[in-house]
Amino acid sequence: MPPMTARIREFLRDRRPEGPCLVVDLDVVRRKYLSFARTMPDTRIFYAVKANPAPEILKALAELGSCFDTASVAEMQMAFAAGATADRISFGNTIKKERDIATAYAMGVRLYAVDCEAEVEKIARVAPGSKVFCRILSDGADAEWPLSRKFGCDPEMAPSVLEHAHRLGLEAYGVSFHVGSQQRNTKAWDAALAAAAGIFREMAERGIRLKMVNLGGGFPTKYLNEVPSVEAYGQAITDSILAHFGNDLPETIIEPGRGMVGEAGVIKAEVVLISKKSADDQVRWVYLDIGKFGGLAETMDEAIRYPILTERDGDAMEPCIIAGPTCDSVDVLYEKTPYALPISLEIGDEVLITGTGAYTTTYSAVAFNGFDPLKAYVI
């Protein structure tokens, strides 16, 4: 279970913020960054801004030397505001408007993701001479939050995309992939690295030398189940790189998001209602003042099961269905696999949802049903 730091406990006790809120402990984020940097010293860290773009987090990471994986011009502007320079920013979205590429280029950004020739052509027109890396598809097996086929191309197609970039005056820089978010298998990178090495060899035969492999994200947060250490991932990835690339090692990049900030955050919420649907119903419904639309979108299909703490956790437990407060029937968090909560839980009780530092505030951007977007405090 993710840590409940003393600093977060003290903040909630002393400030007593009204309504649901996220509290992030920056010390945890700093420790995570240093753990990645120590474990993979020859790999550049590009924090995935989308995971949590709080200015305080970006500033702390920029001061530590982090680079930034951005999905939009707005995220680039956030990274610049935090102190990053253009050479520490990647435009990692494979789906970009040409005018946004032009804006990024004017800001000094020279590193772009692609997965097809049409995207290459946009970059060649408005960002001449830039470096491009081609994202390839990965099956995401063993990931708790697998990614779809939306991003990436078949590995067999990548050499043509990269050669097209080369012929248009861009630098065919490398290959990227993503093994799926919340990836608990330390060996999940091996097959993708094998494919990347094959692309490097094919490009060399075409007279083009690639330089970089972007290992993507996938590094997990500890939720209800234990996850391997950063050190275990680093060792497994290093072993695979050596196995597939031999002595001709590429530059490497990682893009941790969830694995950087997930364990640093806790959401305080409140029980709004406890009820049953019939007189003989064996399972209670517990409604919180936060749900899918308030920041817990990753409970979709119950993919992410967050640890929930209450002041009554020493009491007898029974399975419950947990739902959010909105007037939308999909705003149910856990029903397929009910969640054990104390039988003594009451309306008005406070609950703490841990491991919520990533992908919560960013999924709570609209005041659906008039409920305010999730408030956040970074301490």
TrEMBL record:
Residues modified to N6-(pyridoxal phosphate)lysine: K50
EC supergroup of this enzyme: lyase
Catalysis: reaction(s): L-ornithine + H(+) = putrescine + CO2
GO molecular function, one term: ornithine decarboxylase activity
Alphabetized SUPFAM superfamilies for the sequence: Alanine racemase C-terminal domain-like, PLP-binding barrel
Annotated catalytic residues: C327 (proton donor)
The keyword Protein transport appears for this protein: no
Name this protein carries in UniProt: ornithine decarboxylase
Keyword Lyase: yes
GO terms, biological process: putrescine biosynthetic process from arginine, via ornithine
Matching PROSITE patterns: ODR_DC_2_1
Lineage: Bacteria, Pseudomonadati, Pseudomonadota, Alphaproteobacteria, Hyphomicrobiales
Pfam family, one: Orn_Arg_deC_N
Organism: Methyloraptor flagellatus
GO cellular component: cytoplasm
Entry keyword set: Lyase, Pyridoxal phosphate
Orn/DAP/Arg decarboxylase 2 N-terminal domain ranges (all copies): 27-261
Pathway terms, separated by semicolons: Amine and polyamine biosynthesis; putrescine biosynthesis via L-ornithine pathway; putrescine from L-ornithine: step 1/1
InterPro entries in UniProt: Ala_racemase/Decarboxylase_C, De-COase2_N, De-COase2_pyr-phos_BS, Orn/DAP/Arg_de-COase, Orn_de-COase, PLP-binding_barrel
TM region(s), chain numbering: none
Cofactor: pyridoxal 5'-phosphate
Family the entry assigns: Belongs to the Orn/Lys/Arg decarboxylase class-II family.
E.C. code: 4.1.1.17
